[in-house]
Amino acid sequence: MRYLHLGDSPWVQSAIRLEAPHALELEYVQQMTAWLLFLHAPAQIALLGLGGGSLARWNLRHLRQSRLVAIEHNPAVILAAKSMFGLPAEGPRFEIVHQDALEWVRATRPATYGVVQVDLYDSEADGPVLDSVDFYRAARRLLPDSGGLLVVNLFGRPQALKQSLTHLNVAFDDRVRLLAPIRAGNRVALCFHGPSFQVEPSLLTRRASWLENRFGFPYPRWLE
Fold first, then answer.
1. CA diameter of the chain
2. Residues noted as catalytic
3. What number of other Cβ atoms are within 10 A of residue 196's Cβ?
4. What contacts 133, CB < 8 A, 6 or more positions away?
């Protein structure tokens, strides 16, 4: 196993099993794929915060119909992901943008990305680096009105989690659902944008089982 830390921080930012580099080793990163319960893979996915590139590698390997852009402001993180964590080379399906995530979402054309995955932390990991109603609203505008999902990794002090949820619910009109917490303390939030919809529970149950068989993650448990 190889782990990514920022500076002297004890917090693990990313992990890779050298014999199985495409696997998602961290439970919360696995949960960042829970949007597949509700959407097929869109034409474009945005990843705010690269880390070691675990989620980028997984998306590129398994969601081949999707193009991925990863936004990362720290050049050292980009270098580490490329040199020590097996990040694939950029190409027609993959682009890395070295820029502040807030600046990028404000400058990006609306309704461009069907899914936006957000994992933005510094070495202190007290809470998300970007965590305001304005930021989440700016990220929401990237989703199409036909339907899209913002997926956010939440971690830090209990007060930070409460604040993040307040901001997300304001930005997404209370259309936010939390997965159960994992042992490490992370909570993954699914934030829905687009028309309201109704789905038969039995259909979601069947889809969760299909996803579990395909990817090996406990989608039925997450659905509960």
1. 48
2. 119
3. 7
4. 167, 170, 171
pTM reported for the whole predicted model: 0.91
From residue 107, give the alpha-carbon distance in Å to each of 141, 142, 150: 11, 10, 17
27-79 pLDDT tens trace: 889 999 999 999 999 999 999 999 888 999 999 999 999 999 999 999 988 98
Residue type at 117?
Q
- Say if residues 111 and 142 touch (Cβ distance below 8 Å): yes
28's tokens: 């919360």
46, 63, 77, 106 from 112: Cα distances, Å = 9, 17, 25, 12
**How do beta strands 187-193 and 2-4 pair?**
unpaired
Say if strands 148-154 and 187-193 run parallel, antiparallel, or are unpaired. antiparallel
Which structure tokens are listed for 64? 């081949």
CB atoms within 10 A of CB 100: 15
